[in-house]
Here is the input.
Amino acid sequence: MRLFNPGGGTGSHPRARAQRLEMLIGILGFFTVMALVQAVVLEVRGEPAGLAAAVLAVLLLLLGLVVRARRNVRL
Here is the structure.
């Protein structure tokens, strides 16, 4: 079972997969920006920001992987 095609035969069209990836990019992008804001605020206040930086790094990695997957979808 594939991650972006859990229904088997339904939605197997490349455009459907591209739309799912674009939705995931939007969600990950939003949370990445929020994590960036949190990390910057913590740094400016002088509070420990190690966990916020780690979360930001993971979100950036995931966002990069999803953008790369979206770029590889042939329409």
User: Anything to note?
Assistant: The mean pLDDT is 90. The chain has one domain: 14-71. Residues 32 and 58 are 9 Å apart (CA to CA).
